[in-house]
Specification:
Strand content: under 5%
Helix content: over 70%
Bound molecules: aspartic acid
Largest sheet: none
Shape: globular
Radius of gyration: 21 Å
Order of helices and strands: HHHHHHHHHHHHHHHHH
Distance between the termini: 34 Å
Structural class: mainly alpha
Length: about 425
């Protein structure tokens, strides 16, 4: 998707600033919070609904057309393998970083135990690992599309792509249909993206109005540790990998990603931000067929920000209950948080649900989630921003690796 010199980034930024300013005003005027919730939030919801509406067609057609355009299944395997390795390694690193930072904060007594009374959070039923795996595979082709069950949609899309490749000439018509629908979905997405400055303002305003006073309270420290973790991860991991493996300067990378990052920050949804992530990473040099395969997959399974949040909150909640985590428990957290982030849907609040699984794995009381639940949205804005930045870094890097591989092959042929 070609577009002009990104005036959109500027307008999204303006939307963000206006939304925050309006939120602060609503916070101080009497009854302002209710006005923000009743009359501003619905417009943000309409914008999010439109994004959600287009996301399933985009994932379905873009992954399938990405597979088709790679033209042979072994190439899909090679790109897929590298993608999953990058995603898993960076996520494991993210949890380790979170555990180090939060243990340091605990040692410095920055995580003062909170009053653990009045916990009202009812944890959702946890899912076993095996049933999570079973649920990835759909038993019919329609329900996953209707319910936007993203892992199942990805499986459907991969199977359609593989089927078309294997059908050879007889699959040509299907390939054209997929391609054409892919193009149409992208155009619809373009229209929706035009509304983003307004959408971003309406999304952020009620969040600021509702959460302002609480953030100033005791939880500020755990938020701060999580945000330091997000920033360090972005600077250390994404800067170095896009520079070393992707050949892109970190400054250019973050500048190019700014619109998508602002969108992620205000929507707290990786899946909803997908159209922006696709556009920004292609502008940064990601190949179309790689981006359309790697990014929808990443929006669903790659959640470095969520992993950081889970690591920080696990240590924080444990210290609220006076529990000292052992090295073994920390290793378990690294493993479960990495797996939990794969199972986390790219929608607002999903990471908090999966936090229950991480806490359970090391016997930290799951009710402790109530301590951080009230300000989850603020954690979520940061973690989603990191989640999508990691996806885009991967798309840029894999594209570069594929370019080098193609250059080597053509060099060898000459
Ligand atoms: N909101 C996050 C995302 O969409 C998931 C989470 O809740 O951690 O990436």
């Amino acid at each position: 998707m070609k577009s002009k010199k990104l005036p959109l980034a500027f307008w999204i930024f303006i939307g963000l600033v206006v939304g925050v300013a309006a939120g602060l005003i609503f916070m101080v005027i009497p009854g302002g919070v209710d006005i923000a919730k009743s009359y501003v939030k619905p417009w943000g919801t309409i914008f999010l609904n439109l994004l959600k509406f287009i996301v399933v067609p985009i994932v379905l057609f873009s992954i399938a057309s990405g597979v088709i355009s790679m033209q042979d299944i072994s190439k899909v395997g090679s790109v897929g393998g590298k993608t999953v390795i990058y995603y898993m390694c960076t996520t494991a690193f993210a949890v380790i970083l979170a555990l180090i930072l939060s243990s340091a904060a605990k040692a410095l007594h920055l995580f003062a135990p909170l009053a653990t009374t009045g916990l009202e959070y009812t944890p959702p039923e946890g899912q076993s690992l095996m049933s999570t795996i079973v649920n990835i595979f759909p038993s019919n082709p329609i329900t996953p599309l209707a319910n936007a069950t993203m892992l199942q949609v990805i499986v459907i899309s991969l199977l359609i792509g593989f089927g078309i490749l294997l059908a050879g000439e007889k699959g040509l018509v299907a390939a054209q249909v997929v391609d054409s629908f892919n193009e149409v979905s992208m155009k619809i997405m373009d229209l929706i993206i035009k509304l983003s400055p307004f959408g971003v303002a309406c999304l952020i305003c009620p969040v600021v109005a509702e959460n302002g006073p609480e953030v100033l309270g005791k939880l500020a420290m755990v938020l701060l540790v999580a945000y330091v973790g997000y920033a360090v991860h972005a600077i250390v991991v994404y800067s170095t990998t896009v520079r070393a493996l992707g050949g892109v300067s970190p400054l250019a990378f973050f500048k190019g990603m700014a619109p998508a990052m602002m969108m992620a920050f205000s929507s707290a949804s990786s899946v909803g931000t997908l159209p922006f992530t696709l556009e920004c990473s292609e502008r940064l040099g990601a190949r179309c067929e790689v981006a359309s395969f790697v990014l929808p997959l990443g929006a669903t399974i790659n959640m470095d920000g969520t992993a950081i949040y889970q690591g920080v909150c696990a240590v924080f909640i444990a210290s609220c209950y006076g529990i000292d985590l052992t090295i073994g428990q920390m290793a378990t957290i690294v493993l479960t948080a990495t797996l939990a982030s794969i199972g986390t849907a790219g929608v607002p609040g999903a990471g908090m649900v999966m936090l229950a699984m991480v806490l359970q794995s090391v016997n930290i009381p799951v009710e402790g989630i109530a301590l951080v639940a009230g300000i989850d949205r603020i954690f979520d804005m940061g973690r989603t921003t990191i989640n999508i930045t990691g996806d885009a870094a991967c798309a840029v890097i894999i594209s570069k690796l594929e370019d080098r591989k193609a250059a080597r092959t053509s060099g060898a042929l000459q």
